[in-house]
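Could you show me just one protein sequence together with its fold in C-alpha cell form as a worked example?
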Amino acid sequence: MSSANANKSTSYSDISSHNVTFNLSLTSLVRPEAKDFILTLINDGIESQQDVYLRCLLLPVLGLCGLVGNALNMVILSHHGFAETTNIILVSLSASDFFFSLSQILRRARCAIQLFDVAAGVTAETLMQVYVIPFNTLMLVVSICHVVFISIERLFAVCFPFHVSRIYRKRRVKMAVLFLYVYPTVMGFPNLFRLTFEWVHEPKYNTTVAKAKFTQFLTDHFDTIIMYGTVVFNNMFTTLSLAFIFACSVAVIVRLFTNRIRHSDITLALTSKPKELRVMKLLLTVCFVCLVVCVPSTVLDMYILYCNSILDTSAMYHIGQSVNDILYQVNASVNFFIYVSISSKFAKTYKVLFCKRKEAKPTF
C-alpha cells in the first residue's frame, strides 16, 4: 500500500454484526491491516462462552417468540379487516418484524450445524454473513421506518382530528407502506453487495470451507461506500429516525395534555370515543417501546463507531453486538404482548381464534 493510501483521513473501527456495516472511525488514520482485520472479525464467529449463550441460546428463543407473535399479529389483524388504515400499517409492521425474526433465527444456523460438523458450521456462518445479514438489516430498517410513520400519523390525528381520515385514505396508506419497503432498499442498495465468499482449504479441519471476502465493488470504492454506510445510512435510519419518533411522540402527549386542560374539541373528539383512546395508547406504546429498546443499541453503535479500542477487544466487540441483536429482537417480538394487553378487541379475537374451541353445533 502506498504512503498516500496509508494516510487517509478515516480508519476502521467497527463492523456491525447486525448489519455488516463496516464502520470507520472519523478521527484517526487508516491502518494498512484494517481490511484484513474486518474479514478476520467476520470469519472469527463466536469469540467467548458468554457469546455462545447469547447467540446460540437466548437469541434463537427470542427469534422464535418474534416469529410466532408476529404471525399471530398478522392473522388477527387481517381477521379484523382493513377498513381502518391503522390495521394496514400494523400488519405491515408485523410482516417486517416477522422476517426480521426469521432471518435472526437463520443467522444462528452455525450453532446447530457445528454440533455435528464444525467445518460445515464455518461455511454456514459465511453464507449467513453474505446473504442473510443484509436482509436482516433491511427488515430492521423497514420496521423502524414503520414506527416513524406511526408517530407521524398519530401527530396528524391529534393536530388535525377532523381531517386525518381524509389525509390518510386507504389508498394513500397502502402506497406509503409500499414506500416504507422500497425507500430503505434503494438507500441501502450499496450495502447489499459488500461481501461474497470463496472456497479455501482450511488446514485446521483438513477440508474446504467458505470464507467471506470483499466484492470487487466494495474493494474499488472502499472509502466511499464505508463512509456512506457509516455516516449517511446508519444515521438516517437509526439516529435521525429515533429522534423523529421521540419528537412526534412527545408532541402528541403534550398536545393531548394541553388540550385536556383547555377542554378543546380535539380532546372531546377523542374522549367521546373510547376506541380512539385505546388506539392512541396502543400506537404510542409501540413508539415508546421502540425508543426504549433501540436507543441503547444506537448509543452502543455510536460508541463503537467513534472508538478504536475495538481493534484490541474483539471478544468484547462480539458480546456487545450480540447484546445489540438481543435488544433489536426484543423490539421485534414485543408488539404482540402490547396488542393483547391494550386492545380488548385484539385479545378477544386471539382467544376466539386460538384459545377457545368452538362448540360443535348439533346436527339434526
Q: What stands out?
A: Residues 1-34, 358-364 have pLDDT under 50 and may be disordered. The chain has one domain: 8-14+32-351. The chain is about 70% helix and 5% strand.
